[in-house]
Amino acid sequence: MHRCLLALIAFLFFQSVLAQTPSTGLRGLVKSTAGDALPYAAVVVRKSAADDRPTGTITNSEGRYDIALAPGAYTITFQSLGFQNVQKTVEISNDYKVLDVTLTEQALRLAEVQAKAGKEDPAYTIMRRAIAKSRFHQLQVQRFKARVYTKSTITITDLPFGAESLFRKQLKEAERDANFKVGVPILNETVSEVTFQQPNIYRQRVIANRNSQGDFLSPSQFYNVSFYSPTVAGAVSPLSPKAFGYYKFEYQGTFRENGPDGRPVEVSKIQVIPRQYGEGVFRGTIFIIENTWAIYSLQLETVSSLGISFTIRNLCSPIKGVWMPTNQRYSGAGSYLGVKGNAQYVRNLTFNEFVINPAFVEDIEVVDEKKAQPAQTLSKGDIKGQQFDNLVQKQKEFSTKNLRQMMKEYEKQEKQTRKKQGADVTVVRDDSLVIDTLARQRSTAFWDSLRSVPLTSDERISYRKNDSLRVIRTGDKTKIDSLNKAGNPSAKKTKPITIGKLLMGNTWYPSKPTSLSYTGPLSQLNYNTVEGYTAELGLLLRYRPRVDSVNRFVKIPLSEWSVGGTARYQFGRQNLIGYGQAGYRHKATRIDLTGGRYLFQYNPDNPISPALNGITTLLFERNFMKLYQKDFANLTVTATPFQSRVTLTGSLEYAQRTELENFKENIKPLIDWRNRTYTPNRPVNEELASTAFPVHSLVTLNLTASARLGATEYTIRNGRRTARRDNDAPLLTLNYRKGMGVNSADPVSYDFVQATLAHSFELGIRSRLSYQVSAGSFLNDKKLYFPDFKHFAGNEFFLQQGDPVSVFRLLPYYQYSTGKRFAEGHLLGEFRQLVLTQLTVLRLLGLKENVFVHYLATPASRNYTEVGYGLDGLIPQVLPFFRVEVISQWQDAQYKGLGFRIGTTLKFGRQ
């Protein structure tokens, strides 16, 4: 009885679902007068001319469209960039209606203000008014909800030279198992529900996702952005207040279109011409609606830092009188690391809810004061403290200057209001992405009811092949699981321990809150002249009992316990050393306890990594790393209060320090270089005749505080707060270190203080200036040894490693370390366009030029200075993250020599 009742309920449920899925609609082909199919044309559907929340679709790459509609009368508008709109009235009855449409190319007429010789191009007065009103258009929408359909295809067209023959077997397996093949598109479809709330909140919930290769999403830096913003994906918008510094504009003509309400609109076509094309700017065409100065459509192209070209096409439709981008198309093509490919992204928005900002209900007229003065001009005093809507009610016409001032005053008042209400005004963007648990399990019927763009024949084939592969994979997995359960009911899904994992390391997850990380000996195999060859084994157990779930894909641990240890065997000294560690973290506070015996570089910032030193020692007979032994116990507490704006660190350490020599004399290198020999492990220093020290014990107190001087803007992604690098405030760091001897006839006694100020800010688009200045002194230098000195980030190898701002390029590691006082300064300018990059072809390859200066003053350094020039993108589009540098050395304003370095833009840290 119960089974029959359940069956009846299920039957009625599915009948209701099918009843809600229309079996009627409209489909057809959109083509040009030449008979060519028009891909990605917009099809806007309104129930009447007064319908202010239209639905719609777009044509696929074959020019075909398909949209499900309930029976009734509709007004259909067909749009395509560069073509005249066509409106049709259709009556949908009890089946699908076929409607093919032919679009005629847009006929432009030149306005009477066409530029004459010596006169300003009329495009400039259009763009001045559009730029002045851009912020008005951006703030006009209070909130909205929309259903967003996205379809993307990514095609790998070519692999690096020799890859297809070298990895033939792997490529065949990828084609068989993952539906991947060179030249065959990878298809991805996503249906999302997107909500927006002023000033900066975006929420996206993915309700369906399907892919022809596997399950993945294709986010885009261009998606939830507006061309009314000053920048779009890091490039200057043609509607930015700074646009005239980056672009020239040409008037191409005007055309008239009938709007959805039957009233005509005048649209001007403006050519966007960058003064210097390359990364950070656009080129192409933008269409501006006369009088409202809103974007009608656009087609713009830019190039990324990797040399990949992107083309953006937007078609807008009026939603409650506001022109919104309802049809978006993005395409990209290029190569990276020898892999060539192209991609197409299509996005269609249907608005379900749309609320206009009450302060911007009434439209206003904008007058270009360079052409004609408005009837009334406001002063700053007239605008300050006034409500925007009150000003608009009193006066409908404003100059471009007054409008910009009014918008700034409005945003200032809104920010103050939100601050009084307790909102965090330093957050400039708050995004979240949630994926529905059924998103990747939707049926074909479900997709057919939601899909805005019909599939092409090739795309259907790709999906069918992937569905077949998924069935095979699922069947194999089911069979294996069944066998495991049959043979061993208690069998668990555990990964087998292999020789590779034992040698290189691995991470296991015994339970959801627990992880065990193992470091294998080959992953940390190094060589130095103090220890010979070294190998390490490490274990670290982490336990996270509490997790804050932002959504089911992003989980942020609220607390964490950890315990572990590292063992290191020194083959040259035939000795085993190591240390243990334990830690606890809760939210923004962390406590760490470490102790044991280990070897440390004299500079605690590790100026050369063990791996790089192993290479220089074995292959170039240059043993740069200098080490001493420390038996220690260390307690460190770190806190980041005030939403991570301030970082406080304190440590207390007991240590017994021992000087070490090379593990043997006359070490034979792998390659015996003429005029080179291994140096002793004792560093050479200008202030000390000898850096030797006896075995001694001491306690060291180390306190550090860092804070931003000013408000730093942040973005939030799924609950994670990140400082915006392009708008950081200066970072001030204060450090106090005190050394106190233990059980010694001549105990260590010193006090050291240091202050550092660092800042990085944009000079212009894709150009940045970064600096760091530090100064410090030993207030008490009664007794200290060389490990207590202030050391600097030097470099003596041709490969520059670490932060390019604060690292010297040619400074010997320990020559100018000081036990007295110091001052140092670093300056790095990164320029999109300087000398060589004046040539457009070099900018398009992704090259960028740098100029830098490094300065050091100690009692012995004699105003040591480095001045250098760098070129990023050493091998464009193959190894784009390498840079080459040329550096000159100076002391007391006298030239000392020239050096060259190869570095990386990836800014690897030092270990």
Automatic annotation (TrEMBL):
InterPro entries: CarboxyPept-like_regulatory, DUF5686. Coiled coil: none annotated. Keywords: Carboxypeptidase, Hydrolase, Protease, Signal. It holds the Pfam family DUF5686. It comes from the Bacteria. SUPFAM superfamilies: Carboxypeptidase regulatory domain-like. Residues 1-19 form the signal peptide. One of its GO terms (molecular function) is carboxypeptidase activity. The keyword 4Fe-4S does not apply. The keyword tRNA processing does not apply. This is Carboxypeptidase-like regulatory domain-containing protein. It comes from Spirosoma rhododendri.
